């Protein structure tokens, strides 16, 4: 009898654990919502940029986040939303995200730069993001 009560108590906790995982965004929860491309400056120098990641060969080369995917056949000229500062990103890890829709967060660089491409971000985290439907 006592074992049955313990089993029933444990079984009653399973739905609560699943609800908690869904609310925290763990597996089993709803997929993340689509994020519109753009650059957002936060408090205390924080920043977030969402868009298409691509490597630019200008000025020695750098990784940048664009509002549209850079393509030679595109009628729309993509605009650089932010430059990811070299040294703040893992080259091998970022190369795996090349051409994908991403969200990068970090801090706005306070140093001087020769790049005239947009705000520069010292990246804390970068991940693939869900693109909005056209």
What would a concise description of this structure say?
The chain is 20% helix and 31% strand. It contains two helices and six strands; from the N terminus they run H-E-E-E-E-H-E-E.
Question: What does this molecule look like?
Answer:
The chain is α+β, with helices and mostly antiparallel strands and 134 residues long. 20% of the residues lie in helices and 31% in strands. The protein has a 5-stranded mixed barrel with strand order 2-3-4-6-5. Strand 1 and strand 2 form a beta hairpin. The longest helix has 22 residues. It is globular.
Head-to-tail CA distance between termini: 59 Å
Main sheet: strand order: 2-3-4-6-5
Tell me what portion of residues adopts beta-strand conformation. Answer: 25-35%
Oligomer type: single chain
Shape: globular
Q: Output the helix-strand order.
A: HEEEEHEE
Mean pLDDT: 76
The total of helices stands at 2
Summed up, the domain count is: 2
């Amino acid at each position: 009898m006592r074992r049955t009560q313990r089993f029933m108590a444990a079984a009653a906790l399973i739905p609560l654990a699943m609800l908690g995982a869904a609310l925290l965004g763990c597996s089993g929860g709803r997929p993340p919502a689509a994020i519109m491309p753009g650059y957002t400056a936060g408090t205390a120098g924080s920043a977030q940029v969402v868009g298409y990641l691509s490597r630019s060969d200008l000025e020695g080369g750098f990784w940048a986040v664009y509002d549209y995917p850079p393509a030679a056949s595109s009628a729309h000229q993509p605009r650089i939303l932010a430059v990811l500062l070299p040294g703040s990103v893992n080259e091998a890890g970022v190369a795996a995200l090349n051409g994908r829709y991403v969200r990068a967060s970090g801090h706005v660089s306070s140093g001087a730069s020769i790049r005239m491409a947009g705000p520069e971000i010292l990246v804390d985290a970068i991940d693939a993001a869900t693109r909005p439907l056209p």
